[in-house]
Design goal:
Elements lengths: L1 H13 L9 H47 L3 H6 L2
Length: about 80
């Protein structure tokens, strides 16, 4: 009877044993791929934000240039070129 109880106890405690880890190199590779993916996503978002800022700034500068070209050239009156 004791052997039978020990067998049940061993089976009962078996669920508390840690499961063997998957291949460590596989886990590291998965982590590396995941990290690279999130880094790529972040870089693309930053680049998209930069492009948006650049286009807005370029449009603003174009408007300023057009406005400056319509202004009267007061300095040209003094230089007389």
């Amino acid at each position: 009877m004791l052997a039978h109880l020990c067998g049940i106890a061993m089976f009962y405690h078996f669920r508390w044993l840690p499961l063997p880890y998957p291949n460590v190199s596989e886990a590291i590779a998965t982590y590396h791929v995941t990290r690279c993916f999130y880094r790529e996503v972040a870089q693309r978002q930053e680049f998209e934000q930069y492009c948006q800022w650049y286009y807005e700034t370029a449009a603003k500068h174009q408007q300023e240039l057009e406005k400056m070209q319509r202004d009267i050239n007061i300095l040209g009156w003094f230089i007389r070129r």
